[in-house]
Design goal:
74% helix, two-stranded antiparallel ribbon
Amino acid sequence: MGGGLFGFDISSMSGVLATSAYINYFHVNGGYRQGAITGAMAGGSFFGTLASSFIADKMSRKTAIQIAAIIWIIGSIFQTAANGIGLLVFGRVIAGIGAGVASAMVPVYQAEIAPKEIRGRVVSLQQFAITVGILVQYFIQYGSSFIDGGPKNPKQSTLAFRIPWGIQIFPATLLAVGMFFVPYSPRWLAGQDRWEEAIRVLANLHGNGDIGHPKVLAQYREIEEAMTFEREVGDSALKALTQPRMINRVILTVCIQMWSQLCGMNVMMYYIVYMMQSAGVHNLLLTASIQYILNVALTLPAILFIDTWGRRPSLLYGALSMMVLLLVVAALEAVYGVPNPGTDPSLNAISWLIVGNPAVSRAIVACCYLFVCTFAVTWGPTSWTYASEIFPTGIRAKAVSLATASNWAWNCALAFAVPTLFQKINWRMYIVFAVFNMCAFVQVFLTVRETKGKTLEEMEEVFESGRPAWRGVSRGSRLDRLQRDIAEGTVKVNFGSRRYEELS
């Protein structure tokens, strides 16, 4: 549900942009004004993300997600009641703060409760929820667009956009209530010295309630040793983020989240209507809806196999494939497109058109679909998984909030700038995003280390091994060896006499 709020955010405008109700009521049709409206939610999310770690470290990851849901509900109410651009932007900023908190803390919570063998799958559910949120919101908007005879009716009721924005309240309500029924993060509990509760949660998650299970004992020992080391170092979370062994990881995750935006995916999500108009497609909303379906469907293979094929190959092949597809789109539009003659007011948001060439139009649409499929299988889930798993517990929330803030900052910048890019540089915009993908490929090759199969507490060994990133890491996990030794009786784990007696 937390990822669903992010998804609702992304497609909260795409289905209403072409409706007469929206255009006539807010007097906007592309350009800077539309960019400001769309970008307002991402701007709010940027600040929500930065605040999220302070809430999560003080009040728990679980409580932070509930607060995010309540803030989203308040923002949705303002959007639904908007009587002008001012109130609409205000509501989108408030809702964005909620989406920002949720988008940062949901993957942190998932990573901290998931077994290492399926951690990638569990955190990838965040991306799956995002895609489902995008799809559901888009089809709600698509259905609402037929109110009063359809999107072309100049007297169309404002219900065409108020209904989709109002429905956003319901998933947030489910999230706020549902979080009462899930456990606190065991690593957060340990960080608060609430070890008894932490052990019980570990037992319920990994040992079917048995605190003596070897896997529970191994997890407990790993967490305790990591916590002891962090406390011996004694740095505050903010100071620890700037230490040489951490700052490179912070920069890496900030860049990965940046590339996940600059690859061009959110242009496809926010402004797919403009892209289809430029390609000469007439049934805009229906054609665009197919890519949202593909986005959901192709995220499923990533969830199933991310812990098999790994993080690094996903990022490398994804960046390279998206670059090629964007260059193909740019070439098709450059060769076969013409300047917009300005005879159709509904096309004022774009400056370049494919006219009378259905084969080229279909080729562009196909490339857009393939692009979405590529992102869904590779960068979509992996960018969230990687950031949430490579930091120690004491600074994880703050580090992930910085990485997610990067995501939202570039999200906001693109939401604001892309309408103008469609008007000013048209097909050349795709070349710009292709270059970004090439830069992402180079950085991933040089700096991203494989993390599949490793526990959160083993990331120090992964990143401090001294090996180049492209050389890989040793196979196997220290946790597996420790679990085996405990099961064989060669290693004993003692909770401490007082703590153990309380739990027995």
